[in-house]
Amino acid sequence: MSRDFYTVMVVASVVMTILVTPTINFIYKPRKQFKKNKLRTVQNLKADAEIRIMVCVHNPRHATGMMSILEACSCSNATHLRVFALQLIEMKGRGTAFLIDQGGGSPQSQADTESIRDIFSEFKPERGLINASVETLAAVSSYETIHKDIHHIADERQTSLILLPFHKHSSAEGALEETNPVFREINRNVMRYAPCSVGILVDRGKRLLSEMNLPVAICIVFIGGPDDREALAIAWRMARHKGIHLSMVHILLFGKVAEVDTSATMNDEGNGILSPMLDCAREKELDEEYMSLFRLMAVNNEHSVTYSEKEVHTADDIPLVLDELEREGYDLYVLGHGKRRNSTVLSKLLEWTDCPELGVMGDMLASNSFGSCSSVLVVQQYGFGGMHLRAINQTTCESNEDDIEAIFKVKSIKYIW
What we know:
Helices cover 40% and strands 21% of the residues. It is an alpha/beta fold. Strands 3-4-2-1-5-8-13-12-9-10-11-14 form a twelve-stranded mixed β-sheet, with helices on both faces. A two-stranded antiparallel ribbon has the order 6-7. Helix 3 runs parallel beside helix 4. The termini are far apart.
């Protein structure tokens, strides 16, 4: 090889090396396929958009509890609700996970499979659920990797919410007993990598809506943060049901409880110790905007919705507030997990919780020592409640006023101060 030819080859190799990386980055953009996931939340759905919920169950008991939530989310004056009921079956004696239609049979107990299918078959127009439809499926996989199948199906079906059963069930005495410890790990894995928002239902056996049309009392506990805003969006949809009374309880933090945890998110925006401060200010601004929208759109309606505020100055005040709420006899609590609240006290309390996947407030309400008889729905917004907030908030603010009014279309609000 001559010197001139060798020089040309070296120069050509260097030039190609320099050009390959930016060229590939310009042509191949894998993030585009995940861009749609940034709006995989109930809060950021357009008013006329179909809401898709995937319900994961292990047995018929879980299916019965989930039906209560689905019935509460479906009403005649709401947008179409599409449900994907997924039975989770442990894979045994097979090397590859697979997905089947429950109508075609299941390797697990045929009795359980048929019972689950029958429970979800009640979700039909004959019961007045004209804006709802359900599709039953079964995922057969190892429990160690079944969360990946859940993520894949949720992404494929473009769901906005995944509902999971709590790993404990209510006993005859009313106490929560562990069903299967593996269920807990599945829930944590789903929450960690989910492509949309996630909700965990602590079911205490209460059927929210019955044929007797008895009024249902639901309490939304709002402290602040994206998880709480997502929980409010779900509860607000439930409030549009004529048989449901929604109580909005806004917990205001003061003193040491409101101190910002400067060690919470040190690497979110590269601002070091200032990052939690900036996050806290941004979250408060979004909370105030959402709460103002809540009051504005609900003030001239006929349906019964109450709003109240509770002050919390120390960590000891939190269980006292919950005790006060429990005396009201609510059928269901809806609350956010609580990530990105950036509160020092709440962060420390989370370290002492028995079930961190429920957050501080959810763990207290689900504790047997608390003695509650109400079901609890704990919600985590997509992206751990904050990774894509800037883009999402901009999209939400640019939506037209008609969409906003349709989202908050209920009938009346009563203020209790």
